[in-house]
Amino acid sequence: MQSRVQIVATIGLATKEKSLIKEMIQAGMDVARLNFSWGTYEEHAGYIKNIREASQEVGKNVLIIQDLSGPRIQEKTGHEFNKEAVEVITPKDLADLKFGLEQGVDYIAMSFVGNAGDILKLREEIKKLELVRTVLSKNTKIIAKIERKVALDNIDEIINASDAIIIARGDLGNEIPLGQIPFVEKDIIKKCNDAKKPVIVATQMMMWMVDHDLPTRAEVTDVGFAIISGTDAVMLSEETASGKNPLKVIQMMEEILLEAEKETGRTVFNLL
Fold this sequence. Notes:
Order of helices and strands: EHEHEEEHEHEHHEHHEHEHH
Strand order of the largest sheet: 1-2-3-6-7-8-9-10
Oligomer: single chain
Strand content: 15-25%
């Protein structure tokens, strides 16, 4: 039995081998995320090849999300939004987008969305690139990452313009008081459920497992309550991209999802 709620796992250096990706799919991974803030095109092309081959061997359709980096300033301890940026689509994003569409990714995740206009601009850029080569035309979908306070102010129009939403709690926590995050998360989930748009809860869901065999009790509770609140997917970042126990993380996440789903009988709007 597999959970209805989907698991999005970031593929990176720790999970680049096809044999491991295959095990992760069998354990419950539904969607693969590629973080374009890191890595070369050669590395990402290798990830995509292995994801597709592993997916075919398992007999399960695994979607691929290309996560654009957006206007961020990289620091030693992480990154932050470049407040001097005029546009949220950077020249690097456009080059990365072209590569992603050539590779046939299923979703483009847009970082630091501020309003519906940002989504519409990205959609136009996708159309331009898809018109150049008709082989690319596959109605590539857009996920809006909610990371800024201004996005909360415009959340209804962003949900309406997007195909799905990621609640990116890490960057969002740099813009609003940390104590507000649980309530903002719950509110966005409800709005997405009402709009019948898939919503993904992300950031530090099983962070302890980057270095340990088990999650903290607080992380288990966090994941469980995200499901009860109505999220359609949960996302793993460093836990699978660079952590020591990527397969165990998937297995534990799937176990928590199945338990949480016993408490809910709701409809899940998945990314397929």
